[in-house]
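Q&A log
Question type: sequence-to-structure
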Amino acid sequence: MREAGGAVRVAKNRLAKIALEGTPAEGIGDLLTGMTVLAYSEDPVTAAKVVEAYAKDNDKLVVLGGAMGGTVLDPAGVKSVAAMPSRDELIAQIVSCIGAPAANIAGAIGAPASNIAGILSTIEDRAEAA
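Response status: OK
Response body:
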């Protein structure tokens, strides 16, 4: 989790509920029963991805839910968030979408010049042959 830019904390449920009071994630206080591990990250998708990947390999870790801003997520919601692209992946996709038209324009501008050069070389070859 640390490598992905997040953190994991084991917390006493009572203290975690007190810490969550007045925050957008206050709704997950009802999920805090039994042994609890809290995973969080700056990018909301990162923590969900790392936890879901770890839960696949470790049967003892059970995802009870999560929060994304003020929205409380059930286990299916956490899986859905984990399936989303991360912030960095979204930025890369946007940049590629923005860059693609520019590359197409550059190709279209360069194409007539290469076509003219090809025609001129063909005419030159015919003139030399004659």
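Response note: Residues 85-130 form one domain.
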